[in-house]
Amino acid sequence: MRSTPRSNRPRRFLALLALPLALAVSAPGLANPTTDSATTPDRSSTGAQNGVGLMRIVVADKSGIDRLHHLGVDLAEYVKPVDNGIEVHAILSPQESQALRDQGFDVQDAVSDQSDYAQNMAERAAAIRAATAATASTDTLTVLRAEWFTSLDNQLFLNIEVKSSAGTDATTVLTASWDSGPGTAMGSGGTATLSRFTDAGQYMYHRFSNPVPITAAPAKVTITSNQGGTVTVDVAKWLGSPRKAPGKHPYVSDFVDHYMDPTEVTARFTSLAAEFPTLTELIDLPYKTNGYRRKAQAQFGTAVPSTLYVTSTAYGSDGGNDLTMSLVNPGTANAPLTVSVSGTAVTVSLATDGSGAITSTAAQVVAAINGNTDAARLLTASTYRGNAGTGTVAAAPVTPLTDNLKAPASVSREPFQMKVLRIGKHRDGSKVGVFLYCQEHAREWVTPLVCVESAERLLRNYAQDPNTRKLVNDLDIFILPVVNPDGAHYSMYDYNMQRRNMTNHCPASNADPGRRNSWGVDVNRNFSVGSVFDGYVGATATSCTSDVYAGPAELSEPEARNEVWLVDHYPNIKLSMNTHSYGGYFMWPPGAYKADGREVLPRVDQGTEAYFWTSSDYILSRVQEYRGTAIWPGRTGPVTDVLYSAAGNSADEHWYNRGIIGWDFEVGADIYNPTTGRFSAVGFQPPFAEGHEEAMEFANGNIGILEVARAYATDKSQPRSSLKVVKQEAGATSFTFSTSEPANVYYTVDGSRPTYDSPKLALAGMREGVQSITVNSDTTVNWFSVDIAGNVESNYKPDGDGSNYNKQRVTVQ
């Protein structure tokens, strides 16, 4: 709010301008009594806006701001230093903008104008219309998930997800009440309100933000809406599916006792390959990384216009760290600016005036260094972050250049040779391949331990444990323990929060030493499917200092190209697991969407989605076996449904380009404190005691994935399916199909023979199960099912001429 009416402000601007500023008023239609309304731009609340916008103005210094204030210009509370002065924002009409330009002000483009206002108002009106339409009648509630589970210390939890047909209206409130077991009263177990979950501006569903702690396992839950809808459903148990008893022979585990850097991990894998030559081979991936190395640098000056920095031509480890530079005051009057080189020492003798004062600016010193052939052979110079460098530099003593890297000498500075440990009794491509890979993000220290523990268990239990022997004999297992070795070294020894690799794609304006923790590419945003370059969100291609920088192009990074090479070179790879941290998630594709309309990558078909869910129950039960950790149902599902959009991630790359069924672990589930009733996050690098436990339980999960993969590889059983009528009303009958295992159903309703080109049973919606098909007259439905392994029901040949498909008549009342 303004505390002073415009009419009481200084009138100098109005007097100076041919078209004076209009009065900003609170009452409609009030005119400025001191000006001619015929020549004043109409800015009243009842008149046309006449192009009024929020405009950028650049002034040389704060005196320019003071002058604008003195003239009575309507300035926003925004000030930003820019290269040529200070940027401020002002509300101006086109006439007012021109009048200021005539006074010598640099009025630039609009931050926003009336077209933005109109769009905002149109969007608001559309949202109101949608909400009004959604709540015009009693809403329909679709329960997506209702499950109870146990986690650490056998604490019980309840998870519920419900979609309301009125969910686009933010005032829709859903409340859940549950019993305390079979035969007990509804509400006896508790009551809680669900949170409305939106993503990219789109309503998704209502859910508990965190699972609700409960005291007894409920049998049923009732959800009610303030819009009138209600529904009661059974509550299922999440996780804990029974599995065959482990072998009678001792099973050995726990092979990690500290956080390991990539050099240690690779050495461990190399020794395993040497120790178990009949079960393994070590694959050198073709693209070496940039290396744990950087150019050496030194910076001179503290005030921005007087600051410059130099960067060695060679990497620090290749001689850049041996260079020195000094800025010398010659101590004489009228001295010229000169640059000299003696061995690895660069000396800049600064220019002086007649009184002996230094006159060399940062820009002049930069030009002199870069223009000297001997100096340019050793290093390049730059002003600070693109500044014009007009400030006078100060003398500086001999300063060594340094790459600022702190890892011990045991960590090579050369390009890193990434290695994959291939485990299997038959490594000839005849067995189903499984790709386990870890540490795409450098700061996730627990993840390589998961891969190490998994490899150790497979090899050291092979001789005595029959279940392990089956996995190694029947599968072809590829384990890449560290996808991002350079970044991981940097995270461990230099900057623990480093997420990306160490490849610096930044221009000189972002390449000074102060930016050294902001360089690199997010390897898990550098792939070619659903990338930022194709308009998907969750990454950037323009900010080279962003933690989700996707790089200059898809697959620009050797780390990403190595993954692609592996899955292309070994096409028998059919399943994969990408281990990240933290938060406790279990996810699968799709993993990215476009913001406009939340356009998600094509969802997997319903048979594959069912396979993901069925497998998750088994795999996450294996995780839970170690110490009771339950991955929440609300953190299980497609990436876009339970986390966010991750443009250009590797799971999408492998699924959409090659059909590889891929999961993502996020190890490090939140820990519940029964005393406080709160969940606590564990972070990327928890104390090793916690990191060890995470590595153990998710190595269990990896073994579970291999068991699922073996079941897939050895599956010769044909699925069975049936048609089920779900709704009948006058003139319409709706039906769907159920299957004995995850399978796709192909069907016809025109009497024709079903084939792979026939309609396929689809998903009803996100997390909503299978669709219902509606017919309006008596119809013969023909169909068959095929499971994920390719087994066709009744051995029917869709491409043949047989008739041993399913048939059923659906009648309409």
UniProtKB/TrEMBL annotation:
Domain called Peptidase M14: residue spans: 377-709
Cited Gene3D superfamilies: Zn peptidases (3.40.630.10)
Keyword hit for Signal: yes
GO molecular function terms listed in the Swiss-Prot or TrEMBL record: carboxypeptidase activity
Signal peptide: 1-31
Reported cofactor(s): Zn(2+)
Phosphoprotein is among the record's keywords: no
Keywords from the UniProt entry: Carboxypeptidase, Hydrolase, Metalloprotease, Protease, Signal, Zinc
Source superkingdom: Bacteria
Family, per entry: Belongs to the peptidase M14 family.
Name used for this protein in its record: Zinc carboxypeptidase
Species in which this protein is naturally found: Micromonospora solifontis
